[in-house]
Amino acid sequence: MVCRSSVTNRGTCRISRRAFLKQCALWASLLALPPGGAPILARALASGPRLPMVWLSFQECTGCTESLMRASAPDIVQLLFEMLSLDYHHTLQAVAGDAAEVARKATLREYAGRVLLVVEGSVPTALGGACCTIAGEDALSLLRQCLDASEAVIALGSCAAFGGLPGAAPNPTGALGVGELMSQGRVPQRPLVNLPGCPPIPDAIAAVLAYRVAFGRLPELDERLRPHAIYAETVHERCSRRGHFEAGRYARTFDDEGARAGWCLLELGCKGPVTRNACSTWRWNGVGNPVESGHPCLGCAEPGFWDRGGFYVPLAKAAAQAGTAESDNAGAAVYDSRCVYCHSADAGALRTDPDQVPTLLRSGNISAHRFELDDTEMRALVDYLKETR
Prior knowledge:
By secondary structure, the chain is an alpha/beta fold.
């Protein structure tokens, strides 16, 4: 159904109110807002002022822009444009030439101190900035100008956050992330949010932007300035293959029996136990992620992931164990890897009699229960559910 009266009171909008509220609920969940957070978020987005935004693209592949443009909700880009005033974007405005630069300077002047700056790509510092120039200005000086007029900055993607691929050894361009440049005093200090990933999850980008628009502040951050709610857990902790890890079932090659059966990819170099991101929970565009598609996690959301040895070299056992969830309870591991996607993270809140769980799971009558558990996993799950009651 098409909504002709804008849900955000800013002109014609093709987003139905139902779709708008659904998207707000998703963002509230991703940001770990308390119960009732979604309606609050929706009201704030519908009435808040549009936020002026400048988007810079430096040493990058445009994957982060592509990520947002291809987000799972079909109207997400339009919704963001209702919430934000995207006044400048290197990639999207490339054909505008000088007119785009005039618009950028006007925005920085008119909204000085209130601009939300998004940086995509690392910033080269070698060779006098010759490795990346836009409209005759090198990336570093352009970043300084925009930070002077900004209230906060989002470093979008691993390149902008930590240097990424351009910063990999031997790093001939002297590529650095925004945070490192701030630490060195080479650019002005501003509140910073790192959203690493190669590229970041589309809904993670949208959720952080929505949070800033709705609440006038940035979400809670961890020690690496990443949104805590999004990067609190490792890819391994919620991995759909976690049960196979606990049972010691590993694929040894990309086409052996274990790989075809969906076994754990740790022996094929999976970096999930040491990579913090929400890939296993939110998936790419709500469909899947590399691990579910049969490829090990590359660890792309972590600093220096290009320089941590071969992608297909297995983690040391100690590193893999250090990244494993704290609980050694096999039943808890099964619940965390299979059940939390549809049920509460608190297993004690499950109202089904634990003794009835095997019958229900194996009945074939519940479409969401497409996975299979062997007898050992089933017993462990039932015992764990009984312990939590």
